[in-house]
């Protein structure tokens, strides 16, 4: 299947398919080093506790235990990390800040010995007052999670100067125009208080890291991380190593969805391996991964003002995101949520006040379409409510108020780079909008924007080997999205070689060059941009060789069918190299560097592009139980240019499934900070039976993205759109939802609340 | 205890502690790492192998329960270097992304086709509906199983 060139726009087969379908693809958990120890983590049972003492003597005496690491072992390194705020010790120092916080780590000859040793560690805890909800953390005299004045900022928060204070980790404010004045003259005001739950990304492969020290100054890691270069910088900093002396290998990832963004188990594994002076592996269970990364739960107050014709005037938003005990990526989530709050409408004024709040809960980080998923359903349901009041349907409201291509979204940032009205019209068409619908059938859609791309810094080398094989050195992480296939197609497009002649090996910070991260829908646009430039560079070098070899002008040379042609003469790449080097060896290198086109690529000047988050659903409601059945999903992927339509559709279907889970049943339950459903039996993710019967995928190609061929990223938008679409479909059925997930119980209650005005029904209920 | 079993057609004799789970025997002792570990509680299906043709969760089965029985893992599906038609079908239909649920999905499909060479869509959905996938939204997996039916029935001698 791979013996063929596949250019941009073609449905290439997945280049990693054969390895994965045979079970030969190596994941981090498949790496075994000689002499490797298994490490297990002792975790705090309390949401907030002082650690008076830890007695490890009995555990250390257990045969097979190599070493035990506690907070007392961290004196000779800088033990605090966190890319945004350095608020997280490798293991708890003096205080545990959430139920699940690492307190000690045992390394032993086997996992079962390590587990036994955990039982023998005696920790003397003094329970402290805790703040395990946003409300508890925000009251005056709340227990303080951190001594915030002492906190240092991380290496790459990318958000300018800020200082956490009290339990506020980060705050972000946007204000434009006179909001109060517009509210005072508005004809219609919709307002409400809304809640979004904490949810778990559940990549099927839990977090795992193997650490191996060479001498005392070189560290080698195998880790299922999305951003190896950012992890490398943080780990180097902790142990005072040169960055070049930290080598991170990134094999295939069994999904990520943001849960493997930034630094996770790497500092723990490295610290234990250092103490044990042997290679160490830490493998999370699913429960431990739920304590390692989750999506922020949120409280939001929103008000929207419009005139009597349905023209939107102003929006006011206050939101609080629970970042848990450590900032993790909370500050960026807060900023992105603030960006998404107003929605892509032509406001005369807007005001957004967004806060990230420390609590005694597990840390929250990135999850696919963060910020946008939190806010879009709220904003979009208010737009629909305005429409209902003024007599405009949801599509008319959008056409009247959506921003147009080139409009300002926020001052100093990137203007709108998409045709939103065109996109939402396609969603509506897919839903047969305006057609009569059956009883208890609801249709809804949503549209929003996600600040995508992160920092535009990506690099790549292409190696053309003597036999014509092209090795793509690029550090973008393959986590299922098809990055290696997309990179291969970008090369195949320029050099016209079959995919079987192209290799995209694992990321390895000693070999594959710098890439900022794999997330924010950036890989094809930015890493792909670097690969594209490297391919063009290589192409030019091959043409130069042919010019000299055949004494022709460069216009006479072309590359097609994997060969160089000059008139009726042709040569394989291998033949070109042999002529060039005068020998059957030697290689050429293509170089690709992507950096900010203008300015410094800061958050405020960004984003790299605005990812359009749009889609629609048709649902069927069971009025007796409140249960929702998804009948149809319409996704519109506005991608600029499609490198591989099949992979894009795969992103849309997978993203929609996760959006469904976020919208109607996923929720991590906490009681006093204790996770009550920390496993896959009690925490339900979408199954095959939950999927809609019909999935309509539309791909929009307006060539308006910043990547090669006008492409832009995809893969997150549909997740943000799904809760909005479902909430709006319920809205069309007269059911107002202000808390997700919209479980049958919540829908049933909302249904019965919204019937309060119905006298007949009230009498009927009263009569019973 | 002394274990005698057959894995991917190969007789295996091993001394294993009684509490050894099948998944650990496969992954740690035999280096058959295609079997993937996730939920550890028989929910997700990523560790599925076939025991005498029936799908089982190797995370929740003791190795000794395979005594004198036949185990098939993903490594035993494509023999002699060529893909099984079910594997080809998954590739053709993009029935995988990250690849972590994939071995379990392929083996579950094989057990279905052994039982019923011509399952209808409802039967397909009921059979593979117990396995979780977080990447694909399941649609391409259902298509891959349908394609598997086609390809398997068109492959002589299979």
Overview of this protein structure:
The complex is a heterodimer of chains A (768) and B (158). Chain A is globular. Chain A is built from 19 helices and 33 strands. Chain A is of the alpha+beta class. With 158 residues, chain B is of the alpha+beta class. Chain B folds into 2 domains: 2-76, Roll (Ubiquitin-like (UB roll)), CATH 3.10.20; 85-153, Orthogonal Bundle (DNA polymerase, domain 1), CATH 1.10.150. Helix content of chain B is 34%, strand content 15%. Chain B contains 5 helices and 5 strands, in the order E-E-H-E-E-E-H-H-H-H. Chain B has helices at residues 22-29, 85-92, 102-115, 121-128, 139-153; strands at residues 2-7, 10-15, 48-51, 54-57, 70-72. A 5-stranded mixed β-sheet of chain B has the order 2-1-5-3-4, covered by helices on one side. The radius of gyration of chain B is 15 Å and the shape is globular. In chain B, 55% of the residues are buried.
Shape of chain B: globular
Gyration radius of chain B, in Å: 15 Å
Number of strands of chain A: 33
Question: What share of residues are in beta strands of chain A?
Answer: 25-35%
End-to-end gap of chain A: 67 Å
Indicate the percent of residues in helices of chain A: 25-40%
- Main CATH class of the largest domain in chain B: Alpha Beta
Total helices of chain A: the number is 19
The SSE order of chain B reads EEHEEEHHHH
The number of helices of chain B is 5
Helix coverage percent of chain B = 25-40%
Structural shape of chain A: globular
Calculate the terminal CA-CA distance of chain B, rounded to whole Å. Answer: 37 Å
Q: If strands are numbered along the chain, what order do they take across the biggest sheet of chain B?
A: 2-1-5-3-4
């Amino acid at each position: 299947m791979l013996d063929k060139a596949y250019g941009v726009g073609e449905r290439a087969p997945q280049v990693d398919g054969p390895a994965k379908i045979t079970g030969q693809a190596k994941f981090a958990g498949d790496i075994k080093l000689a002499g490797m120890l298994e490490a297990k983590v002792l975790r705090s049972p309390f949401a907030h506790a002082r650690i008076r003492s830890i007695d490890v003597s009995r555990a250390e005496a257990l045969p097979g235990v190599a070493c035990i690491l506690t907070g007392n072992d961290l004196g000779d390194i800088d033990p605090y990390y966190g890319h945004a705020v350095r608020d997280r010790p490798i293991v708890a120092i003096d205080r545990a800040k959430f139920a699940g916080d690492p307190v000690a780590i045992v390394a032993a000859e086997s996992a079962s010995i390590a587990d036994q040793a955990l039982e023998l560690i005696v920790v003397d805890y003094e329970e402290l007052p805790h703040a395990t909800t946003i409300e508890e953390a925000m009251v005056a005299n709340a227990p303080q999670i951190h001594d915030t004045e002492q906190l240092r900022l991380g290496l790459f928060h990318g958000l300018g100067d800020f200082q956490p204070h009290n339990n506020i980790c980060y705050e972000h404010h946007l204000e434009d125009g006179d909001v109060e004045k517009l509210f005072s003259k508005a004809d219609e005001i919709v307002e409400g208080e809304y809640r979004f739950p904490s949810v778990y990304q559940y990549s099927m492969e839990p977090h795992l890291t193997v650490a191996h020290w060479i001498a005392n100054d070189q560290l080698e890691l195998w880790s299922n991380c999305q951003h190896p270069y950012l992890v490398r910088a943080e780990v180097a900093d902790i142990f005072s190593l040169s960055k070049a002396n930290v080598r991170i290998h990134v094999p295939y990832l069994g999904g990520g969805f943001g849960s493997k963004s930034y630094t996770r188990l790497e500092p723990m594994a490295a610290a234990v391996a250092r103490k044990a002076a042997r290679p160490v592996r830490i493998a999370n269970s699913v429960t431990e991964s739920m304590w390692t990364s989750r999506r922020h739960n949120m409280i939001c107050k929103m008000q929207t003002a419009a005139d009597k014709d349905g023209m939107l005037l102003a929006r006011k938003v206050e939101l609080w995101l629970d970042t848990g005990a450590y900032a993790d990526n909370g500050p960026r989530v807060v900023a992105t949520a603030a960006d998404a709050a107003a929605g892509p409408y032509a406001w005369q004024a807007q005001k957004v006040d967004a806060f990230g709040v420390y609590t005694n809960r597990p840390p929250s980080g990135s999850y696919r379409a963060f910020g946008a998923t939190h806010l879009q359903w709220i904003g979009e349901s208010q737009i629909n409510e305005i429409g209902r009041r003024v007599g405009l349907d949801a599509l008319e409201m959008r056409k009247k108020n959506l921003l147009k291509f080139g409009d300002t979204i926020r001052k100093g940032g990137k203007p709108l780079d998409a045709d939103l009205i065109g996109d939402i019209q396609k969603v509506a068409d897919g839903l047969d909008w305006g057609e009569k619908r059956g009883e208890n059938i609801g249709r809804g859609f949503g549209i929003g924007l996600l600040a995508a791309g992160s920092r535009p810094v990506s690099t790549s080398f292409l190696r053309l080997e003597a036999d014509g094989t092209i090795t793509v050195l690029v550090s973008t992480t393959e986590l299922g999205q098809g990055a290696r296939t997309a990179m291969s197609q970008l090369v195949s497009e320029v050099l016209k070689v079959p995919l079987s002649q192209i290799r995209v090996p694992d990321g390895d910070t000693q070999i594959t060059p710098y890439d900022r991260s794999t997330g924010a829908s950036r890989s094809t646009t930015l890493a792909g941009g670097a690969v594209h430039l490297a391919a063009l560079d290589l192409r030019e070098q091959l043409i130069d060789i042919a010019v000299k070899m055949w004494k022709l002008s460069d216009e006479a040379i072309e590359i097609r069918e994997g060969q160089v042609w000059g008139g009726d003469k042709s040569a394989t790449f291998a033949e070109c190299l042999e002529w060039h080097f005068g020998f059957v060896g030697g290689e050429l290198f293509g170089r690709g560097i992507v950096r900010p086109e203008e300015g410094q690529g800061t958050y405020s000047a960004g984003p790299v592009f605005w990812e359009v988050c749009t889609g629609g659903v048709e649902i069927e409601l069971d009025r007796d139980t409140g249960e929702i059945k998804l009948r149809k999903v319409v996704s519109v992927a506005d991608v600029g240019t499609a490198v591989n339509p099949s992979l894009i559709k795969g992103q849309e279907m997978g993203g929609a499934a996760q959006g469904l889970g976020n919208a109607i049943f996923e929720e991590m339950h906490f009681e006093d900070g204790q996770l009550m459903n920390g496993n896959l039996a009690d925490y339900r993710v979408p199954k095959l039976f939950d999927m809609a019967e019909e999935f309509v995928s539309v791909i929009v190609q307006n060539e308006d993205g910043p990547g090669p061929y006008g492409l832009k990223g995809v893969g997150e938008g549909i997740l943000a759109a799904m809760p909005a679409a479902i909430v709006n479909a319920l809205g069309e059925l007269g059911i107002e939802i202000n808390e997700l997930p919209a479980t049958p119980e919540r829908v049933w209650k909302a249904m019965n609340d919204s019937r309060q005005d119905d006298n007949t029904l009230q009498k009927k209920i009263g009569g019973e | 205890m002394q274990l005698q079993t057959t894995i991917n057609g190969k007789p295996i004799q091993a001394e294993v502690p009684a509490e050894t789970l099948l998944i650990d025997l496969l992954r740690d002792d035999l280096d058959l790492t295609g079997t993937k570990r996730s939920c550890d509680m028989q929910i997700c299906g990523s560790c599925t192998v076939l025991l005498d043709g029936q799908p089982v969760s190797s995370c929740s089965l003791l190795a000794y329960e395979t005594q004198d029985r036949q185990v098939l893992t993903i490594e035993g599906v494509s023999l002699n270097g060529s893909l099984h038609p079910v594997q080809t079908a998954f590739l053709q239909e993009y029935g995988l992304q990250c690849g972590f649920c994939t071995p379990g999905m392929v083996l579950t499909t094989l057990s279905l086709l052994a039982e019923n060479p011509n399952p209808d869509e409802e039967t397909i959905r009921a059979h593979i509906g117990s396995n979780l996938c977080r990447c694909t939204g399941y649609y391409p997996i259902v298509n891959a199983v349908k394609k598997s039916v086609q390809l398997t029935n068109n492959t002589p001698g299979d």
